[in-house]
Amino acid sequence: MATPVIMPKFGMAQEEGTIIRWLKQEGERVEKGETLLEVQTDKIDMEVEAPASGVLTDVRYGPDATVPVTTVIALIAAPEEIAASPQGPASSTPSAGVRVSPVAQRMAAATGVDLTQVIGSGPQGRIVKSDVAGALQAQAPQRSQPQEDGTQRVRATPAARRLAREHGVALAALIGSGPQGRIQAADVEKALRSEKRGERSEKEEAAGVQLGTPGEAAGEPLRGKRRTIATRLGQSWQNAPHIFLTTSVDLTRIDALTKELAEDVEAAGGRLTLTVWIARAVAAALRRHPRLNAWLRPDGEQLVYTQHESVHLGVAVAVEDGLLVPVVHNAETLGLAALAARIGDLSARARSGQLTPDEVSGGSFTLSNLGMYPVEHFTAILNPPEVAILAVGRAQVRPFWNGAAFEPRRMMEVTLSADHRVIDGAIAAAFLAELKRLLEEPSRLLL
Amino acid sequence: MSRELTYAEAVREAIDLAMARDERVFLVGEDVGVYGGAFGVTDGLYQKYGPERVRDTPISEAVIAGVATGAALTGMRPIAEIQFMDFITLSMEQLVLQAAKLRFMLGGKVQVPFVLRTPAGAGTGAAAQHSESLENWFVHVPGLKVVMPSTPADAKGLLLASIEDPNPVIFVEHKLLYRTKGAVPEGYYTIPLSRTEVKRTGRDLTIVATSLMVVRALEAAERLAKEGVEVEVVDPRTLKPLDAEPIIRSVCKTGRVLIVHEACKTGGFGGELAAVIAESEAFDYLDAPIRRLAGLDIPVPYNRELERRMVPQVEDIVDAARRLVKEAR
Q1: Engineering a disulfide at B56: which of B25, B33, B133, B241 sits with its beta carbon 3.0 to 4.6 angstroms away?
Q2: How far is B196 from chain A (nearest CA, A)?
Q3: Which residues contact B144 (CB under 8 A, 6 or more apart)?
Q4: A157 vs B286: CB contact, 8 Å cut-off?
Q5: Is the minimum CB–CB distance between B185 and chain A shorter than 8 Å?
Q6: Cα(A408)–Cα(A391) distance, rounded to whole angstroms?
Q7: pLDDT tens, position by position, for chain A (447 residues)?
Q8: CA A6 to CA B78: how far, in whole Å?
Q9: Which residues, other chains included, contact A145 with Cβ-Cβ below 8 Å and sequence gap of 6+?
Q10: Which residue(s) pair with A303 in the sheet?
Q11: Closest CA to A41 of A23, A59, A15
Q12: Closest Cα of chain B to A182: distance in Å?
């Protein structure tokens, strides 16, 4: 019986492959696991192994042929057929005088073991079944060498896969201790333990990867909140094409109003900070420019854009080991005093680690203020799935040309980052202009 | 109170209790009366209950199964015996086409409450026609229940539950178990059907075994414990309907499973067990392939050494378990 050679499917989305060249010719003897041909997919070049031992026959496609995956491209005639035929390799028949049991003979024929290379362990050196089995096993390691290019499916037990899934461990980076390098649950557990100790993986050791010069401090793998931040921001930066728009805001009127209102706000349990003013203005501006008050999320192959009715304003708060973004839900409904109280409460509880999951999720726009540092201007990375974020720099007194002379004014720079996939520059600019106007003429917040 | 009884004595006690309690219960089979059964299981019952209730039949397994089915339909509670499970082949039509289906085909208007007891298994040098384990043939047939106890106490409680059951029950005993002893509670008690039992707890490997193989698995577990391998031995006891949950739970715990039965591997109950495990949430806990250790796919040989080789022995179980644990460590 002949074994079909098919166009393999190397990738999930791969539908066809192109034959680069055949390394074996029609009529040539091949061993199972030997490279038969090279195939090109849209991404990579791959070698295709012989699925069985025998003679390559019926090669149906030549070089440059593009063939759908799983199509039969050639056949390998079984060794029995070859052994029976006069063209069969003579070397596999033992020389006269060598004794072989019938089972061993049949087994050797079926598996392509060269009996002249087998030493018999039976009576008078007769080759028996176990000798052939031994010879086969000796060949096996060379055949089952895993490919190093990472395209081969990782051998791992279901339990190891579950553990890897649960702990975010990449199976491909592990060395399996099971049969033929199969990754066991214990291997994943070991990797998790060594990750905790900050050790290098065995594979890195085996590959001789130099991670640092001797004596250098050991690296610390990211964990917990920090790992989540790293993953989310990395994805955001890579997936969302950011645009940045900066404007400066004259704080003269806000400063005057703050003096007027600070006591009342304090009486209501809050502190009328610049953040509160900006939050108030952002909420109002977003009501007028709702395109920025939205999410952009992948759903399967598609991207889904969702605009929010209410403004759920995230306010970034630096905490000891990272960053938290508590969310002021329905921020547009809150007046200055209520907003001040709410932001004060959320920030305090963010620092003491007492926020509930609801209070750190569902944001539709984020505000990040580094004004307490000598940072004049910065750009923020989008907080997915949100499509915009506002970065606030330090307010400082600057010379301002009033048309006749320079006068000192307290100014600050704010920078809007927007996801250019859904937010055009003009839309972002219109929002920013609105925001600037609301902050410079805060009486408009009453409208 | 319980005392030591052999498996055969426990089965006899169950029959005795059922007959004393319910006059609809009667025995029917070849040599079950005056002779006391080929393995002496029904010894003394003829003398106690007389020829009306302990009935010897001609050598016709079709008749035995037909009588049991017919009597059950009319309201009796027959306990039929097929002397060797091999000869159940002759009663297949009555069991598979009649007994198993009548309740369904008549819309539940009749019941077929009989128990068909039969000794299975090799190990007595009785050759290919007196040594088979054909339980899985019946597992495949909807309408039949299949019970396969491994201890005297289970045999008694499960037999009484089988007699009470309103459906035909194939009750598979093992020839080599008849003389094994164990503590058996006194008096009338039942062990519900479809209740898998963990016979020994362990953390490294689950062995699911049936009938005689439970005894061998427990002995293997004892030996492996000395090497530091803790084996959990699980006994389904009722093959159909199967209580899979304890098996799945055990595999989730140990991550490795060895299925052991005496019947030939191909088409045996182990395949069903393996599928049940692989389909369950236990899949994500497997740290090694599910392995089966079962009878070789050959007729049972007459030659005693070959017969021994054909059926899993304690050392085979130890060996298979050791390899499974080692490869997954």
Answers
A1: B33
A2: 24
A3: B95, B96, B99, B100, B138, B167, B168, B169, B170, B240
A4: yes
A5: no
A6: 24
A7: 688 898 888 776 677 888 888 888 888 888 888 889 988 876 567 788 898 888 888 888 888 888 888 888 998 887 665 544 444 344 444 445 567 887 777 777 777 777 877 878 777 778 887 787 777 766 654 444 444 444 457 888 999 998 988 888 888 888 888 887 888 998 898 888 877 665 554 555 554 444 444 555 667 777 666 777 888 889 899 989 999 999 999 999 999 999 999 998 888 888 999 999 999 999 999 999 999 999 999 888 889 999 999 999 999 988 877 788 999 999 999 999 999 999 999 999 888 878 877 888 889 999 999 988 899 999 999 999 999 999 999 999 999 898 999 999 999 999 999 999 999 999 999 999 999 999 999 998 888
A8: 60
A9: none
A10: A298
A11: A15
A12: 9
* Spatial separation of the C-alpha atoms in residues A259 and A371, rounded to whole Å: 19
For the record, the structure tokens of A194 come out as 């060594």
Q: Which two tokens stand for residue A398?
A: 């600057």
Rounded to the nearest 10°, the torsion over CA A39, A44, A47, A48 is: -60
Does any CB of chain A come closer than 8 Å to the CB of residue B327?
yes
| Distance separating alpha carbons of residues B258 and B205, to the nearest angstrom | 7
Going from the C-alpha of A393 to that of each of A309, A312, A374, A380, the distances in angstroms are 28, 22, 8, 11
Q: Is A242 a known active-site residue?
A: no
In this structure, the number of other CB atoms found within 10 A of the CB of residue A309 comes to 11
The verdict on whether A377 is a catalytic residue reads no
Residue linked to tokens 């925001």: A435
Residue A159 to residue B287, Cβ atoms within 8 A: yes
